[in-house]
Amino acid sequence: MAEAWLIAPAASIISILIGLFLFKYVNDKDAGTDRMKQIAGWIREGSRSFLKTEYTYLGVFVVVMAVILSAALSLKIGVTYVFGTLLSGLAGIIGMEIAVKANVRTANAAKKGGLTEAFPIAFRGGAVMGLMVVGLALFGVSLIYWLTKDPEIVLGMSIGASTLTLFMKAGGGIYTKTADIAADLVGKVELSIPEDDPRNPAVIADNVGDNVGDCAGSGADLFDSYVAAIMAAMILGGTLPIQYLEAVPLVYAGLGILASILGIAIVRVGKDGDPGKALNMGTYATTLAFAVLTYGATIILGYDVKIWYCNIAGLAAGTVIGLTSDYYTSINRSPAKKTAESSQTGAAITILTGFSYGLISCFPAFLGIGIGSAIAFTLYAAVGMLSIAGIIIAGDAYGPIGDNSKGIAEMSELGEDVVDITDEIDAAGNTTKAITKGFAIGAAGLTALALLASYQEIVKRIVGTTVVFDLMDPMVMMGVFIGMSVPVIFSAMIILAVSKNAYRMIEEIRRQFREIPGLMEGTGTPEYNKCVNIATKGALTELLPLIVFSIMGTIVLGFVAGIKALAGYLSGAIFSGFFLAILMANAGGLWDNAKKYVESGFFGGKGSDAHKAAVIGDTVGDPFKDTAGPSLNTLVTVISQIASLFAPLFIAYALIGV
Amino acid sequence: MAEAWLIAPAASIISILIGLFLFKYVNDKDAGTDRMKQIAGWIREGSRSFLKTEYTYLGVFVVVMAVILSAALSLKIGVTYVFGTLLSGLAGIIGMEIAVKANVRTANAAKKGGLTEAFPIAFRGGAVMGLMVVGLALFGVSLIYWLTKDPEIVLGMSIGASTLTLFMKAGGGIYTKTADIAADLVGKVELSIPEDDPRNPAVIADNVGDNVGDCAGSGADLFDSYVAAIMAAMILGGTLPIQYLEAVPLVYAGLGILASILGIAIVRVGKDGDPGKALNMGTYATTLAFAVLTYGATIILGYDVKIWYCNIAGLAAGTVIGLTSDYYTSINRSPAKKTAESSQTGAAITILTGFSYGLISCFPAFLGIGIGSAIAFTLYAAVGMLSIAGIIIAGDAYGPIGDNSKGIAEMSELGEDVVDITDEIDAAGNTTKAITKGFAIGAAGLTALALLASYQEIVKRIVGTTVVFDLMDPMVMMGVFIGMSVPVIFSAMIILAVSKNAYRMIEEIRRQFREIPGLMEGTGTPEYNKCVNIATKGALTELLPLIVFSIMGTIVLGFVAGIKALAGYLSGAIFSGFFLAILMANAGGLWDNAKKYVESGFFGGKGSDAHKAAVIGDTVGDPFKDTAGPSLNTLVTVISQIASLFAPLFIAYALIGV
Questions:
Q1: Which residue in B181, B472, B571 is closest to A456 by CB distance?
Q2: Helices in B412-527 by DSSP H: which ranges?
Q3: Which of A82, A394, B220, B655 is an S-S bond match for A127, by CB 3.0 to 4.6 Å?
Q4: CA–CA separation, B155 and B229 (whole Å)
Q5: pLDDT along chain A (658 residues), means of 10
Q6: Facing B478 at nearest CB: one of A362, A374, A616
Q7: How far separated are the first and last CA of chain A, in Å rounded?
Q8: Which residues are within 8 A (CB) of A127 and not within 5 positions of it... i.e. 6 or more apart?
Q9: How far apart are the C-alpha atoms of B98 and B133, rounded to whole Å?
Q10: For residue B15, what are the CA distances in angstroms to B235, B255, B315, B577?
């Protein structure tokens, strides 16, 4: 059936409508006392101010890129590029807006009706983000496909989404860890005041960071992988013999949205229920529903059943990587406990132990990606993992809402009981976060491999014959080594950016405690906005040259060394990028939970030497897991797409190489 | 000239003779007072005891391997395998014996005649190691080539050397860092007694560690890369059209030895001279002499001058990597200073900053290796870097002699002036060490690439046609990801082994201070041998399963997934192995010098909070730079050669794949 792909726009519109409905549901809830509204207002204003500044920077960047793309390639690409950035940006705004509404309403509901009333608000807030992201993304892809029937034009939209994502993910990551580290180092360590204490000038920036980094950033991240995977699968699918096969990714993605809606609908928690279990149940139900729906569609539409197997292989690889991340980071498992135990011998051993387990945790992920790419057509595998993005993003966006609601409950002094409930909601977010993060990295890894394959496909269409990327070709090998350095340098620079920026904010916090009378005693008012401004400005100014450098580096290599070297370069970037992403995410999560394990009373508990060592581990892990690690996926996606876009020019004008 | 290759055995015999002569020169010097002899005796006995235990383990391992190789492949391979282990083992023994003689004699000469008398003893002690290693290695290769004229049989000897090296390098690395970390954590941190204080029960183990890790281990490391590079170049050279081309690597290597002897001869230092400059002068002279000699030989013997260019490209790549390591680790450069400065904000920022600079330092190395492999035939490039191994090893082995002499001077209370002189000798060792380490890693990287090419060549000879290792082949791509995990897991396990073993030794040191009466007051005698035994036993028992696992993993993958997957696997191991080796060596060296920078009086100096943070960085860096990092080269060399050796069996019996 030639019209089967229409399931994609249909599902995407349903997704957007349900998203808007849930938005209204959350918005209609009571936002609580004046004090709560005041605090939530600070967070909202901080988040909006960050997004506004970021979008201003981005506006300039997008215009410059659009002009370059239109001039160098075609106006169509330039226009779809802008379209992609607009959709991705819109998804970010909606996700952020719902998050800053849901946080305070969750806290208020916890006060009024306990867990059963609070949990749905937090989760549905997250679901708004999930549904809007996949809805807008698939709607955009469908629209362009309908207008042009050319998957390569979708590439323009995809790269628009990716460049925006890189800013939101990496910029948000720098922001959130700047605030987190600075708030902790001065507040907890130097002054011994609790986390989320309103006297700390960085506390609002810290809560804003949760929104801009975890919520808007993660949503944009999966938006980007999602679009890129569908696009790559369409480009590759178009070359297979069966007619209309390039529509398969659209059909599967549409069914994935329906499965996600089903999964979101069944997530509920009873009076003494476990929010973590409820979230996981939603994910499992979605996965199962997706498998059943796509099998049915494959049979009914007469697709090769091998495609369905690949789809399932991708899903399985994603699950393996997610579960591995869970094992290596969970507070209840041996790696975190052993890392906590090793803290008794000092911080150096904490670092070494956590780093080692982080390295070991890469093995199942490598195996999963390796076998996944071997048994699948790669392309469909990636779509398989990403089709259930709706529920994954919902779980991801739930995290910062829960985290914020706890912060608001504490700052508004809603009492021990309420804080405990929000704490439970927050803790469930941490559990699912490890799994969804692993899933996102795995999906991005397979997407990058699919992008590599689509790069080869595009080169083939231009040259007229398959160009082999032989590992023993000196140009390819050289490309691999140069490509490996891109994620490596990017990680380094972005971690240094966090250090530098945190240093600036620490100076500011110290200044405020020194100069504002009565701040420590609780009678003075901290200047929250100064910290917010430092985090915002630093994040964006540190980031811009890095992104420009990555894109320019790719283009320069292509023009100098040609398409074979570039294929090696993309592969090298995938290798080191995937490795560092997994290592940093898992080691970071592990140190975090090792610290929590010590705090729960083991090895001397809070305030002991072991705790101090564990805190150092956690601080090292912060930019690993929340800044550098999660940005790498997007970085690799961006440069892969740049390579594909510019391939015709490299072939025509490269200095050396074929 | 068909007999040109005879320059190799001739040069190797000259090298061995000069080595023996220098051995006698050092041995004839006075070993000083009874107290000095007693301390040197403890170190000597500890070193011998480690080597004895290690060789006992190794004996069993070698016999098992020889039986397997003889049965699975051929008796010839089995015999040359044993021959390789014997030569490498002999080089280790000689290097160790001269180190434990030169250390005390250097200290004594410093007391008697100052720097001008002490320096030549330390340097010539190192030169013994350098000359014996290259002499024995090239003699062995020449002998086998003379007997068989078949470079593939040399592979047997090469892998014999490599497996032994892996034990010596990694085992010595675990040993030295176990002792170092344990001695520091209890001695310096808990009890506030100085380094090298004879009351510390781990102090002898610490000094032994310098010998077994740095001296015997590093010598074996370059022995192994040296043989492997010559062997790989011979296998590849044999396929080129020009007759006798497989002898080129032998000719170049022979000339390299002569150049090294020249360089060693001119190293001297005046009364107020700078030992560091003298050492570097020797290296530069050797490099220049080597370039001139090989150019002459290339012209006279009528070789293609392109080979000479490749040779020089390899030398240039090695120099770039060495100088990069120097820049990123030197105490006088911005990375170490900035890391020291960041220590003021706490240990977490020290770790993050040093780690980031370590990542950045990979870029020039990647670029060097990438461009080096692209412009050279790879094979000859590797020989180019390694031909001057003689002087490189001499500089490397000089390090622990200087370090030990300082320890002996302190423990024997030879006075401030003498300690200062030995300190100067020691410091020069640290400067050259960064360069030689970078050089060794670069050489190993190019060697591994040459081994990959020789693997393809061997496969081609069996199959009869060139098998392309296409990156887009799912088996190759799967192989890359699985191969990447080998160095990753190996690093993790070996770091965990150091942590575990250090923990055991810490318990023992604490026990001795608790139970031995008068130990802290200086009237009791510590049981040094107990610490030596813990370090020895732990190092070997932790290591054996790791090595067996790496070898077995390679063989299993070959039999299951076939030669294409294995090519990907080897490439993946090179990618992650080279990356981690550079990262760990440079980050480790950087943290070390950042600590020294703080100790020299900046940011509060010794005892300040910044110093405590910098010490944590240094401790994290210890197993990075001295255990995991340096073992990875050898690991990759071992599995590459295993793959080549077993290639015929994989082709015949693999389950899947071609």
A1: B472
A2: 416-463, 474-515
A3: A394
A4: 10
A5: 84 95 94 89 86 87 93 92 92 86 92 89 92 92 88 87 86 88 82 81 83 73 82 72 68 91 88 81 89 91 82 81 86 90 90 95 90 66 70 83 87 86 83 75 83 88 88 90 95 93 89 89 86 86 89 94 93 95 93 90 90 93 89 90 90 79
A6: A374
A7: 41
A8: A19, A22, A264, A394, A397
A9: 13
A10: 25, 11, 21, 32
Question: CB count, 10 Å around CB of A525?
Answer: 13
Cβ distance B366 to A485 less than 8 Å, yes or no, reads yes
Of the candidates B657, B628, B639, which has an alpha carbon nearest to the alpha carbon of residue B571?
B639
**Closest CB to A471 among B357, B471, B620:** B471
Q: Which of B433, B393, B426, B435 lies closest to B129 in space, CA to CA?
A: B393
CA distance A94 to B380: 59
Nearest alpha carbon to residue B105 among B26, B52, B161: B26
Q: How far apart are CA B352 and CA B591, in angstroms?
A: 11
User: Which residues from chain B sit within 8 angstroms of residue A452, using beta carbons?
Assistant: 471-472
φ/ψ of A470, rounded to 5, equals: -80, 125
Q: What angle do CA A613, A619, A623 make, to 5 degrees?
A: 150
- Longest CA–CA span in chain A (Å) reads 75
- For residues A308 and A405, the answer to whether their CB atoms sit within 8 Å is no
Tokens 């150091």 correspond to B498
Residue A84 near residue A159, CB atoms below 8 Å: yes
Residues contacting residue A188 through CB under 8 Å, at least 6 positions apart:
A194, A195, A615
Tokens of A157: 């939209």
Taking the C-alpha atoms of residue B275 and residue B174, their distance in angstroms, rounded to an integer, is 30
Per-residue DSSP letter, B198:
T
B520 Cα distance to chain centroid: 37
- Which 8-state DSSP code applies to residue A628? I
- CA–CA separation, B508 vs B169, rounded Å? 25
Cβ-Cβ contacts under 8 Å between A and B: the total is 218
Neighbours of B411 (CB within 10 A): 22
Cβ B620–A185 below 8 Å, yes or no? Answer: no
CB contact under 8 Å between B471 and A567, yes or no, is: yes
Q: Tell me the chain A residues in contact with residue B588 when contact means C-beta distances shorter than 8 Å.
A: none
pTM across the whole model: 0.92
Which residues in chain B are contacts of A362 at CB distance < 8 A?
A: 484-485, 488-489
Per-residue tokens: B310: 């490749």
* Residue B9 in tokens: 């055995």
Residue B565 in tokens: 């997957």
SS3 of residue A324 by DSSP: helix
Q: Counting Cβ atoms within 10 Å, is residue B601 exposed (0-12), middle (13-18) or buried (19+)? A: exposed
Residues of A in contact with B493 (CB under 8 A): 356, 360
Chain A hits for B357, Cβ within 8 Å: 492
